[in-house]
Amino acid sequence: EAGVAQSPRYKIIEKRQSVAFWCNPISGHATLYWYQQILGQGPKLLIQFQNNGVVDDSQLPKDRFSAERLKGVDSTLKIQPAKLEDSAVYLCASSFATGTFTIEQYFGPGTRLTVT
Amino acid sequence: AQTVTQSQPEMSVQEAETVTLSCTYDTSENNYYLFWYKQPPSRQMILVIRQEAYKQQNATENRFSVNFQKAAKSFSLKISDSQLGDTAMYFCAFDGLTFGKGTHLIIQP
User: How far is it, in rounded angstroms, from Cα B5 to Cα B7?
Assistant: First the structure.
């Protein structure tokens, strides 16, 4: 079974530029998550999709971050314009969960973003 | 909002020893799941063990076990017979969505 795929693996941009990350979840997983993991901290949930609908985006900085999940499969996360504090690893995860509880998430390798 | 606290930023033990990682959380919910995830250096995060709050029996997965104290809102992870491959960041997570800051566990040969 193929795992969660993410690209690119690494990205370096200058502040005020824009960047996009792509995630392909495990086939059949209804729920997809984007996390931001700043160095030395645990992952912070940015947005949770169930199929192609948003379940929770309360921690997504909507003035600069946007995400979509077209057709309930692949997802993209965009930052425009980037700030220095956006430097982090962006993790994508997916799960079978369609109800109240997240039973287990499968994580991708992450995209390491450096903003200079 | 839920919070998860891991009070041990780093721990180091000798190979074959037993180590316990601490986690406390705060919630007003009665039914939930708790998780321990492992993030090896430069590798993907993987699930170590999970506990359902309505189950009183502590979860066990081979060398990994938890001590779940619901009233105290405590959820510690015990690793028995530690191995070099256990070296990693360990994250406690509430409902899989709220993570602690992690504990860096180093297993010394």
Answer: 6
Contact A102 B33 (CB under 8 A): yes
- Nearest-CA distance B18 → chain A (Å): 24
Query: Is B2 near chain A, with CB under 8 Å?
Result: no
Q: What is the pLDDT of residues A94-110, one digit of tens each?
A: 998 766 666 789 999 99
**Going by C-beta distance under 8 Å and a sequence separation of 6 or more, which residues neighbour residue A17?**
A81, A82
d(C-alpha A97, C-alpha A28), whole Å? 11
Compute the average pLDDT of residues B1-16. 94
pLDDT digits (tens, 9 = 90+) for A19-37: 999 999 999 999 999 999 9
Q: Does the CA dihedral A24-A26-A28-A31 come out positive or negative?
A: negative
Nearest to B34 by CA among B73, B85, B78: B73
CB-based contact A54:A35 (threshold 8 Å): no
- Choose among B71, B30, B65, B72: nearest CA to B51: B65
Measured between CB atoms, which of A102, A104, A107 is closest to B97? A102
